[in-house]
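ARCHIVE CARD
CATEGORY: sequence design from structure
SOURCE FIELD: tokenized fold
FIELD CONTENT:
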């Protein structure tokens, strides 16, 4: 058992850990249809960000303003159609500096007549300077995924 030092904060080792988010949404559509919405420029612009760009290949580019305020650019480091796409965000002059890798990982799993889409975001520094950016992206992705679901399940309704 580790020895406790009087007066030392018990969670000091955890203080520098990064934070993240996990979103799950069940969509009444097949994986191929959802994959197309994730990787097509025209479709991405309808549900994610009006000026979104993507070059959907390993080593490709993803650029969007998910929170509608801060444009972020990412390197696509994993692309396994139609199951997984992992984005590693590039440093931005609009954001505080960090030495951590900020990642969004999209995973699609068929579940009967539905597809489960998971988005795991990680690597966000626990620093107060990142609080607003972290919350904007977490909520921005939550809303974007809800728009994606509505668009695919009720075409023409939004």
């Amino acid at each position: 058992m580790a020895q406790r030092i009087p007066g030392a904060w018990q969670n000091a080792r955890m203080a520098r850990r990064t934070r993240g988010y996990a979103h799950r949404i069940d969509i009444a559509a097949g994986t191929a249809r959802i994959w197309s919405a994730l990787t097509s420029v025209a479709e991405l612009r309808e549900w994610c960000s009006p000026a979104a760009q993507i070059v959907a290949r390993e080593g490709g580019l993803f650029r969007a303003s998910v929170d509608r305020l801060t444009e972020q650019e990412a390197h696509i480091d994993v692309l396994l159609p139609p199951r997984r796409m992992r984005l590693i965000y590039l440093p931005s002059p609009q954001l505080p500096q960090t030495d951590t890798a900020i990642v969004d990982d999209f995973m699609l799993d068929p579940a009967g007549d539905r597809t489960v889409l998971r988005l795991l975001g990680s690597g966000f520094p626990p620093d107060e300077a990142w609080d607003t950016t972290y919350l904007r992206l977490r909520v921005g992705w939550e809303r974007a995924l809800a728009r994606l679901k509505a668009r695919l399940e009720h075409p023409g309704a939004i």
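CARD ANNOTATION: The first helix runs from residue 31 to 39. The radius of gyration is 18 Å.
SHELF: design records, drawer C
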